[in-house]
Every structure is written in C-alpha cells, then in structure tokens.
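Quick check before the chapter quiz. The format below is the same one you will see on the exam, so make sure you can read both the input and the output lines.
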Amino acid sequence: MKKIFYLLIPILVMSCESDKDNTGPSSDGFDRSKVLSNSYDNIIIPAYNEFNISLINLDDRKNTFINDINEQNLSILRASWVEAYKKWQAIEMFNIRKAEQINYASVSNAYPCIEEKVINNINDSISEIVSFTSSMLGATGFPAIGYLIYGNDSSNVLINFNGTDGLKYSAYLNALISNLVVNTDLVKSDWMTARDEFVNSTANSQTSSLNMIINDFVRYFEKNVRTAKIGNPYDATGSLQPKPDQVESYYRPDICKSLVIESMHAVKIFYTGESYDGNNNGEGLEDYLIYLDNSGDLLIAINSQFEDIENKINLLDDDFVLELNNNGRERMEDLFLSMQNLVTYFKIDMMSDRFGISPDYEDNDGDGG
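Here is the expected output.
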C-alpha cells in the first residue's frame, strides 16, 4: 500500500513586542480581549467539539460500511457525512495557528472534486494521506468522500466497493476520513492549549490574534462563502454561464442550500457574539461597533444586509444544480451582489475604517479592499 507524502514548507509566525505591549483596551478605549475571549470560549471551542463528535461518528460509520458493504450501511454512512459537512461550516473560517500550518481548510474542503485524481490515487493503492500539497487539491476531504460514496451514478457505488478494486476503494475512503480525523485532532489540541495566548493578543499587528481572526472572518465570508459557494457556480467573474459542477456538494446537491445557511449562521454569530449553542450573547464585532461613536448607520446597514441575504438564500432551490439548470442564475447573481455589499461593509467600513485593521490577503474583486 502507498502513502501520500509531501515536503511541508514551514510557516514561521514571528512574535512582535507590540503584541505583548498592547493588550487589553485599545487606543479607542474598547477592550478587544472581550471579543477574543467570547469567540474562544463560546464559539470556537464548542464548534470544534461538535465537529469532532460528528467526525468520530463518520469514522465509525465508515468502519461499519467497509466491514459489511451493503445499501443500508452506505445510507447510514452518507447521513453521517452530511452531518459532519454541516458541522464543518462552523469552523472553516478559523484558519489560523495549526490550521493554517497544515492547510486544514484546503485538505478538508477544496472543491470541485477532481475525479481523475481520486481514481488515480485509488489505482495507486493510496492508503494513507500523510500531508497535503496543492497538487492534491480536489482529491481529499469532504468533496472526495462525497464522490466515493455517491459517485456520478449511485448505483455504481456498491459495485465499486464490492468489485475487483473494492479493497483499494475502501483503503482510500479510510485514508480520506482518517486524514480528517487526524488533522482535526491536531487543530483542536492546538486550540485547547492556546486560550491565554489567543485572548491576550489584541495588538494591531499582522501577527496578533485579533487581526488574524478578523481578517480570516472577512476573508472566509468573501472568498469561501460569497465566491466559492455562490459566485463560482454561476461564473460571476467569467461568461456568466452556469457551472453546476462547481457547487460545494456536487454529488449530493440537495444539501447545497443548507451548507450556505450553516455558513451564514457561522458568519452572523461571530459578528454578533452569539454563542455557538445560542444560549447567550457575548461580545462580538457588533458590540465593538456599538461602542464606537460613528457606527450607527453602519450597524443598521449590516443588519439590513444580513436580512437581505437570508431572504435571497430562501428563494433558492435546495439543490443548486437544479437551480442553475432551471434558469436560476439570476437569483444566485442577486444573492452574490447582496453578499458583495456585506463584504464592503465588513472589509472597508468596519475592519479598515472603524477598527483600523488592514486586510492581509490579496483581493482582485474590486471592492476597494
């Protein structure tokens, strides 16, 4: 059996004295550590705990299916994959620390799935994914698992796993899910030991927790939600010709809308400070804006944009492939443009103008960032 290896290029995170000297209240008087502590205690850690539970369940169901390949066990495995995929939406934005070092988001949810790469890995008897490189994009994580357990023709799935190459299919499915489990353990363990360091790093510098987490929040909404989930499937930056194969869950497209809803919920609670379980409301970015004297109009605009986005999502079919094939491109374009307005409010008006934090990622979308 073969393993996938790659040379990991280390990402060096330098510590600046300014991070240590500028903790607690910021120059505008707001105690930024409250946003970090609430995010850590009530959003990040609970979300990782829930996702980890869903992965353990997915791993168990995978073992049951591999040991007894039949329609019932496949159906149960599929249900656990859907549940874990939904839970994933709550943690994908937190792409800092260990998650960034191991390319956690890319290895877990780079789509569309490149079927040829998956088949080649199966033919090569890949049984373990040690690490990840860009050459593996589209052959790992939730999209690749979706391809294996749904395929282009669901009737062929049991044939694949019971056929001549069935052991190879089982080995690669095991490798994909085990990789998710191992990587999640690494990232979760890193978060569990980092509370004080994370909460106290409030300086306005490239390496502070505050700057990185807010940048990742805005980047996630802009790139992973607006562009990847909505813009790419209707080809927002190209010829505007629908591309159904670009949807997030191509092999189970009737959950596309629910994945967008879950991701928007994650965006909203990080902004408002609402806890992951919904039982309390702590300090969030919204509270920071409320504290500032010049943000009344912006607060109203952001809340109105959230409502508009939610309304436009509700107009879409649950199945984005059907949506695109049934002349639904205009509805997706309306949603994209509404999301674009919120990107501007977040990145320009809130992050840059009010908080004084500069974007730390490349942008070619013309929103002024």
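If your answer matched, good. The beta strands are 2-4, 126-129.
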